[in-house]
Amino acid sequence: MKILIADDEQLTRDGLKRTIDWSRLGITEILEADDGMHALDIARRENPDIILSDIRMPRLNGLELARELRKVQPDINIIFMSGFSDREYLKAAIRLKAVSYVEKPVSVSEVEDAISEAVENSKASHHSQQAFQRDMLAQAGRLALWMTFPPGRAGAFSDTLLQDADPYLRKDMYFVCFIVKFSVPTENIPESDRQHALALFDAALSSMHLSELHVEKHDVYLVFHIYSVIKLSDNALKKISNSLKDSMAELPSFFISVGTVVSGIENAHRSYSNAVVIMQSSFFSDWNTCLFNEPSSASDPAVIPDPAAAYRDALSTGKGGRIRQTEEQIFASYKNSRKLLPNQVKDIYYQLFLCIVDCCKKNSLHADTLFSPNESVTDNIQKCATLKELAELLRSKSDAFLKIIDTKTPESPVILSIRDFIHKNIARENLSVKEIGEYVHLTSTYVCTVFRNETGSTLNQYITRVRMEQAKEFLSDTDLSISEISAKVGYSDGNYFGKSFKKYTGQTPSEYREKAAT
Questions:
Q1: Class for domain 147-291, per CATH?
Q2: Rounded CA separation 271/263 (Å)
Q3: If one looks up domain 413-517 in CATH, what number appears?
Q4: Which residues, in sequence order, are bridge partners of residue 5?
Q5: Percentage of the chain with pLDDT > 70?
Q6: What count of other Cβ atoms lies within 10 Å of the Cβ of residue 332?
Q7: Under CATH, which number does the domain 2-125 receive?
Q8: pLDDT for the residue numbered 123
């Protein structure tokens, strides 16, 4: 806590600093001024919690100093000192709500008592302000969340909520929504970093005479509602988005989408919905990009008619240059396209990944080096937030494919037969190692040893993986019930299937299907 000692007598200031046990009283910083004007300048700059001031000083006396400070710091605690027992001074001190009035020569104990009282007052004031600010932030967050829903869906709107969130906010203002989508959950961003970014953005808005309400949604989104008495132009929106981008620069990667400007708080949800739709195009952009509601071009770039066939042909050559060229052509054809949704493009890339797996099988090569036993093509694709990340993932797998081609390590006919038998019989619950061994004319023990030595995984691990991967495909691509899917992948007990699926993926079948649909 800071205290400012204002007295034109150096001896008095030094004596107070030397004789009072400041740390015991909770004072961590002592400022001093030799007259009222200096004291006013220092107070405006340093914002002390307590003023210990002489009344009679050159240029600006203690009472005048207090009046000026009350204008900008109404909660500041003031203690007056004076060598004159003047009733008028005492009356003025009372009117200025001084904590205490100490007569000179001062008594150390009397000054300490006055400072102790001022410290307690200051703490109470700080706690009250913090509680008020927390309440305002909570109300602002409630209102910001309400503004993302159409009227009626989030409960009745109240004028009290409006006033509690911001006394200057009116229902008939203009509103525009900005959404920030982070590459990581907002809970993983340190609170201090978030608050610093918000303070920077609020300062930038203040310089433009604008204000905002914000709320976090769905773990990775920060939703801002900017409001103004005048309709914001396109140039103003770009200026705001640049300020928001600069404010968030030290946080993890993000996208910013900007909704349309609407009139009236009851239409704020329209701007939010528009920003949500625009955010979908972030998949085709690079991180740290601002996205606006821009008209689509008259014609999209030419899209390869059958990308899977083109990619399969390139892979069949085994030539890195041809494969790279085809990957780049496919990437370019979707990069600037706005006719497809992200999930549609992900489905196309899923087919490209399957092309690599098929090429491995046709060449009797180890496909397991492309994907670890617990790695899922579908999961990897879903984790990609941008087309660029998806293209980079495909390239990493095609690089691995080329390395397999170069090392020339084909799978033995026995392993290929085992894999083929498992895939054809995966729906049978009683599929056993003994039966697999009989199919390839090997004992149970030897077939397990051969499979593990060549593939790096056990037969049971491989069977489970095939079952789980097929289950994922059914959950993502069909409307089959979970019990039907359970039967199709070799489980007669739906509960046991659910437990096995969660152990393998970390999600229940229902959770996985819901996530895959978003």
A1: alpha beta
A2: 10
A3: 1.10.10.60
A4: 32, 52
A5: 88
A6: 15
A7: 3.40.50.2300
A8: 84
pLDDT tier, 67 (very low <50, low <70, confident <90, very high otherwise): confident
Place of tokens 């009683």: 430
Cα 192 to Cα 360: distance, rounded to the nearest angstrom? 50
- What pLDDT sits at residue 165? 59
> Tokens at residue 210, please?
């604008």
Q: Are 482 and 510 in contact (CB under 8 A)?
A: yes
Contacts 24+ apart (CB under 8 A), 439-442: 440/414, 442/414
DSSP characters over 418-453: HHHHHHHTTT-TT--HHHHHHHTT--HHHHHHHHHH
* Residue labelled with tokens 């009679």: 56
- Rounded mean pLDDT, 422-447: 93
**Would you give the DSSP letter of residue 410?**
B
**pLDDT bucket at 57, cuts 50 / 70 / 90:** confident
If you count DSSP H runs as helices and E runs as strands, how many of each does the chain have, helices first? 22, 11
Confidence of residue 369 (pLDDT cuts 50, 70, 90): low
pLDDT of residue 154 exceeding 60, the answer is no
Chain segment 194-220, per-residue pLDDT in tens: 999 999 999 999 999 999 999 998 889
Please name the amino acid found at residue 259. G
Give yes or no on whether 2-125 and 413-517 have one common fold. Answer: no
Query: How do the domains of the chain map onto residue ranges?
Result: 2-125, 147-291, 307-407, 413-517
**What is the mean pLDDT of the segment spanning 346-360?**
90
Helix/strand/coil (H/E/C) assignment for every residue in 22-34 = HHHHCCCEEEEEC
Q: Which two tokens stand for residue 284?
A: 């085709």
Asked if 322 contacts 393 with a C-beta cutoff of 8 angstroms, the reply is no
Decide: 148 and 200 in contact? Cβ < 8 Å: no
3-state secondary structure of 30: strand
Please, what is the Cα angle at 10 between 6 and 16, to 5 degrees? 70
Q: How far apart are CA 76 and CA 85, in angstroms?
A: 24
The pLDDT confidence band at residue 193, using thresholds 50, 70 and 90, is very high
Within 283-354, strands assigned E span 289-291
Q: Are 262 and 174 in contact (CB under 8 A)?
A: yes
Identity of the amino acid at 463: I
- Residue with token string 């095939």: 466
- The rounded distance, in Å, linking the Cα atoms of 268 and 226 is 10
Three-state SS annotation for 378-398: HHHHHHCCCHHHHHHHHHHHH
pLDDT of residue 134: 52
Between CA 249 and CA 254 the distance in angstroms is 9
Burial environment of residue 53 by CB neighbours within 10 A (0 to 12, 13 to 18, 19 or more): buried
* Structure tokens, 176: 């525009």
How far apart CA 452 and CA 339 sit, in angstroms, is 46
Contact 251, 183 (CB under 8 A): no
Paired strand residues for 53: 6, 80
